[in-house]
Design brief:
Strand content: 25-35%
Oligomer: single chain
Distance between the termini: 55 Å
Number of domains: 1
CATH topology: Purple Acid Phosphatase, chain A, domain 2
CATH class: Alpha Beta
């Protein structure tokens, strides 16, 4: 323990000046800083949510998670459908997806910094629904990316900051969809190979970190197909630092490629319907050292769960962190998903929870 004399010296102006000088020297010599990026899958607030939000409060969807979302330096996700009370269902929208505008302040309060809106359902309620979505979220300080008023504007990235680092977020909708933007019509950003490479290269020249989000469309099983791997690895080769995918209704594995993470489908995070197969999943947190991703930490979370007699039906709509005992099934499932991609995971215990670490070995791209 320091003596009173030492404490007096440390408190003196001279010593404060020395400490500040040492801190400045350390900063200028390139001391690395660690920060976390947390990403969740599909956010789809259907009709079930409107009365719940009004009755229980805007924080109800994520109340059981506490500070889990907001404690990361950046928290991002995929939004399914529009946030609007206007517009009309468009022809061809067999299951129109729209959520109440009240969802926007709920997401902002939960800690979301940005959302990918390159969804097959972003245009279900036309240009009015799309415009409302942008307006409601951006007014609340939540950046949106992956869609725009035309195909050129849909390619624009959202640029976020972590300290003095800049982070570009790019969003794409893969396949051929009526929701994709045209030359003079709003919609989602098409995942065209040439455009994707150019967008990533341009973002890499002007920002420190580039994140790519790809919505693959409807689910087709747990297995990652060759087209997914080709496009995701192409994005890394073009300069992306991480790729996050979503295939609606599907949860898939992850891999490290050239030392960068690819998460093929993050599954549902909030939905208005019960999902028995994917009711318990794992959420990734990418740990960066400055602009370099070091590892991915996967945390087991309950999304929709089978209820016991007497349980409040609304509780199945509330994500919550799982204990070590509760997490065994999703951990085994995700470990199997990842094995097919050549990915090894290392389990560790944090309090009463299990976290799976996915190291990002630096290796040359294939």
């Amino acid at each position: 323990m320091a003596t009173p004399n030492v404490w007096r010296r440390l408190k003196s102006a001279r010593w404060v000046g020395v400490c500040l000088s040492l801190w400045a020297l350390a900063s200028s010599s390139g001391v690395c800083r660690e920060w976390r990026l947390r990403v969740v899958g599909d956010l789809s607030f259907g009709r079930d949510w409107t009365p719940i939000l009004r009755r229980e409060g805007l924080d109800y969807p994520v109340r059981a998670l506490g500070t889990y979302l907001s404690e990361a330096e950046l928290t991002l996700g995929f939004l399914d459908g529009s946030l609007s009370d206007g517009g009309e269902p468009q022809p061809g929208a067999t299951e129109p997806m729209r959520s109440a505008p009240d969802v926007a302040p709920a997401l902002a309060a939960a800690g979301f910094d940005g959302l990918c809106i390159a969804s097959p359902h972003i245009m279900d309620f036309g240009g009015e629904g799309f415009g409302d979505t942008q307006r409601h979220l951006e007014t609340r300080g939540v950046a949106v990316f992956g869609a725009g008023l035309n195909d050129t504007l849909s390619r624009l990235s959202a640029v976020l900051t972590v300290g003095d680092l800049t982070v570009s977020c790019l969003g794409y909708l893969h396949g051929i969809h009526r929701a994709q933007a045209g030359q003079e019509t709003p919609g989602a950003n098409p995942a065209l190979a040439s455009a994707l490479r150019d967008d990533i290269a341009n973002a890499k020249r002007t920002t420190n970190v580039v994140l790519v989000f790809i919505h693959w469309g409807e689910g087709r099983g747990d297995d990652v197909d060759g087209k997914q791997r080709l496009i995701a690895e192409m994005a890394i080769d073009a300069g992306a630092d991480a790729v996050f995918g979503l295939r609606r209704g599907t949860w898939q594995g992850a891999q490290s490629y050239a030392g960068k993470p690819i998460c093929y489908s993050l599954g549902d995070f909030i939905r208005g319907t019960r999902s028995l197969r994917y009711g318990r999943i794992l959420i990734p947190t990418v740990v960066f050292e400055d602009a370099v991703p070091l590892r991915v930490e996967w945390t087991p979370v309950r999304i929709d769960d089978a209820l016991k007699p007497g349980d409040d039906p609304a509780l199945r709509l509330q994500p919550r962190l799982l204990s070590a005992d509760e997490a065994r099934e999703p951990i085994e499932m995700f470990t199997d998903f990842c094995k097919t991609l050549g990915t090894s995971l290392v389990a560790r215990t944090v309090d009463d929870r299990v976290v799976l670490d996915m190291p990002l070995a630096s290796e040359p791209a294939r």
